[in-house]
Specification:
heterodimer, A: 400 residues, alpha/beta, 2 domains, four-stranded antiparallel β-sheet, 13 helices, 39% helix, B: 310 residues, alpha+beta, Sufe protein. Chain: A, GMP Synthetase, Chain A, domain 3, three-stranded antiparallel β-sheet, 10 helices, 9 strands, 40% helix, NIF_FeS_clus_asmbl_NifU_N (chain B), iron (chain B), Nitrogen fixation protein NifU (chain B), iron-sulfur (chain B), 2Fe-2S (chain B)
């Protein structure tokens, strides 16, 4: 039986068309874009096309608003560190408790080593940002506000345009980590107030090791990596030509499939989710169901632990992920679910299924077929499970 | 993904002796759902021979927790209680062909549950300390001996390293102080033995503590305003009562509650009820109560939760 891959928020398969677009840049077109000769010139043309493809996906007004980086993490680091340098006299950062470690670890380090003050804004039970707290945290000392476009674990989408406008009222820059959003939902940065946006190639069927930071024209940027004049001096280092071309091709494909992602893929996700909560008791959907990515389902199964579920799923040929402490090597259950105050009884057993355009009805059928047995098997073994009679926790299920 | 041995996988995918043992003669329960690991071990003992004739388990936890529990039942069936008590967590790990270092606490959980079940059979109250010293981190079942060994064998000098090697302090954080003491003491002994440069040794308070969950600016026992005169016992009890009363609404809003049982010197016995029971975060609550009482009384106190029914 074909394996079922439902971990596309972790990474995606590089599209075959993307691979074909990249291959010549390893062989015939190996030149350095900075070189004066024909080898360099050919590569230069390829990079320009790729840049325009990514520009189109983002709806950016100018192609030079895109700065290529080594990935989402580098983009996030560049944005925040740059803001602290360019926003004279401001040393505060406003962010959320549910950001990716690319932001949270950096912020913790800045607090420790650069005396930056970081405001971590909480979320409600559905993972929605506390806008009042966000507004209050912004002030004359805020250098930058950084809030993700969509959460990687639950798919919950944040109102980034509103948040950007609020940040500007306080004279602060606004950055968004859009690694999970780009390619999955429509993004239009023309006329947007967003100053900086991070994205990553491998989340949208592009290669790993390539990402970009969108920097709105007029926003000052201090490079994280210094050296040559590449990327207009904003990111030194010889261009990763195959990566950039691959990201461009992936962006073009994502745009082509945007409709499919938001209709067929969303329906697959919904069918899986509803099928699971109908077939399995004490299973609850987490996240903001009305406003989230079309591809992400996060379902918490009470009284059992996530790694055990994943191991049994893996044995059945299904790949998913969990915020469980045991799989990540960290000690706490998912910081996102904890921030949403999902009780421990459920947080340890939360499983994320993340779809892509490659998934099919058969994938959903397969999960629905094996999941009830897996959950029952583990609950049989759980000292906390005493049959279907368990009273529900105070945690309200999204689907009744 | 973790690197599990074939035997771990086999015992996880095809666990032996999983389920409830009817008419168990001894039951041991360790761990908590909050920490992601819990084990209930049920044994049947032949009183004539003192042998374990049957054993079953129920485990909430990851693959290696389930495999370790199952392995434990296989190891102990047929053994006398004394033979069973000689089993160490390393024996469980060895039986499984080894466990990833991060998962050793799963075998410790089995070790603890076995002792708990045997004590239960013998009608004793199981104390969770043993020849290796006191169990320091209850969340991950790390005892003093394990911490000391990890420090010595790997020349650990920071709390962060200890957390990485043993997991201790990684969850609720209530054992930070205990682990700090062990690290300081062990490092000092290593310096004496010439195994560690004095400048490398950990000294409590000299380095930032990693893994502590309480905000940096509020030490666990905050002696901010010691009262000018010593309070009488009655005054102390009244003050403690008033403080607990003020804290109750917050606990009740989480479905829990707390009552004062006894005060003995600097020990304050409280009973946590409702949702607090079996909640591993209860230790965080206790820590919070402790720091508040210490602040109000102006002297260090220990808040000790007592089980309900005492």
């Amino acid at each position: 039986m074909d394996p079922v891959y439902l971990d596309n928020n972790a990474t995606t398969r590089v599209d075959a068309a993307v691979v074909s677009a990249m291959l010549p840049y390893f062989t015939e077109q190996f030149g350095n874009a900075s070189s004066i000769h024909a080898f360099g010139a050919e590569v230069g043309a390829g990079l320009r096309t790729a840049r325009r493809q990514l520009q189109a996906l983002l709806g950016a007004e100018f192609d030079h608003e895109i700065v290529y980086t080594g990935g989402g993490t580098e983009s996030d680091n560049t944005a925040i560190l740059s803001a602290l340098e360019t926003q004279g006299g401001r040393n505060e950062i406003v962010t959320s408790t549910v950001e990716h470690p690319a932001i949270l670890s950096l912020c913790a380090w800045l607090e420790k080593t650069r005396a930056a003050k970081v405001h971590y804004i909480g979320v409600d039970a559905r993972g929605r940002l506390d806008i009042d707290a966000y507004r209050k945290a912004l002030g004359p000392r805020t250098a930058i506000a950084s809030i993700m476009w969509a959460n990687n674990e639950t798919g919950t989408i944040f109102p980034v345009e509103t948040l950007a406008a609020l940040a500007h009222e306080a004279g602060a820059l606004f950055h968004t980590d859009a690694v999970q959003a780009v390619g999955k939902i429509k993004i239009d940065l023309s006329g947007s107030e967003i100053d900086m946006l991070s994205l990553s190639g491998h989340k949208l069927h592009g290669p790993k090791g390539i990402g970009a930071l969108y920097v709105r024209r007029g926003v000052r940027l201090r490079p994280l990596i210094r050296g040559g004049h590449q990327e207009r001096g904003r990111r030194a280092g010889t261009e990763n030509a195959p990566g950039i071309v691959g990201l461009g091709a992936a962006a073009a494909l994502a745009q082509e499939h945007m409709e499919d992602e938001n209709t067929r893929v969303r329906d697959l996700r919904d069918r899986l989710e509803q099928g699971l909560v109908q077939r399995i008791s004490h299973a609850v959907v987490t996240g903001d169901i009305e406003n989230r990515l079309p591809n992400t389902a996060n379902v918490a199964f009470e009284y059992i632990e996530g790694e055990a579920i994943l191991l049994l799923l893996n044995k059945a040929g299904i790949a998913a992920s969990s915020g469980s402490a045991c799989t990540s090597g960290s000690l706490e259950p998912s910081h996102v679910l904890r921030a949403m105050k999902v009780p421990y009884t459920a947080a340890h057993g939360a499983i994320r299924f993340s779809f892509s355009r490659e998934n099919t009805e058969a994938d959903v059928d397969r999960v629905l077929e094996v999941m009830p047995g897996i959950i029952a098997q583990l609950r049989q073994m759980s000292p906390f499970w005493d049959g279907e009679s368990k009273t529900r926790t105070a945690f309200t299920p999204t689907y009744a | 993904m973790w690197e599990y041995s074939e035997k771990v996988k086999d015992y996880f995918f095809n666990p032996k002796n999983a389920g409830v043992l009817e008419d168990a003669s001894g039951v041991g329960e360790v761990g908590a759902i909050a920490c992601g690991d819990a084990l209930k071990l049920m044994i049947k003992v032949d009183p004539e021979t003192d042998r374990i004739t049957e054993a079953k388990f129920q485990t909430f936890g990851c693959g290696s927790a389930i495999a370790s529990s199952s392995a434990l039942t296989e190891i102990i069936i047929g053994k006398t209680l004394d033979e069973a008590l000689a089993i160490t967590n390393q024996d469980i790990a060895d039986f499984l062909g080894g466990l990833p270092p991060e998962k050793m606490h799963c075998s410790v959980m089995g070790y603890e549950a076995l002792r708990s079940a045997i004590a239960n059979y013998r009608g004793e109250v199981w104390e969770d300390d043993h020849e290796e010293g006191a169990l320091l981190c209850k969340c991950f079942g790390v005892d003093e001996g394990m911490v000391e060994r990890a420090i010595r064998n790997n020349v650990l000098t920071t709390m962060e390293q200890v957390a990485h090697f043993t997991k201790a302090t990684g969850s609720c954080g209530t054992c930070v102080e205990g682990i700090e003491e062990v690290l300081e003491r062990t490092n000092a002994a290593m310096v004496e033995a010439g195994e560690l440069a004095a400048s490398q040794a950990f000294v409590v308070g000299a380095a930032p503590v990693v893994g502590r969950k309480t905000p940096r600016n509020s030490p666990v026992v905050a002696l901010t305003s010691p009262p000018a005169t010593k309070m009488t016992t009655l005054q102390r009890i009244k003050l403690i009562e008033a403080e607990l009363e003020a804290l109750r609404p917050a606990l009740q809003s989480d479905g829990g509650d707390c009552e004062l049982v006894d005060v003995e010197d600097n020990k304050v016995m409280v009973r946590l009820t409702g949702a607090c029971v079996n909640c591993q975060l209860a230790s965080v609550t206790v820590q919070g109560i402790q720091s508040r009482l210490a602040e109000r009384l102006g002297t260090p106190v220990r808040v000790i939760p007592v089980p309900s029914g005492h």
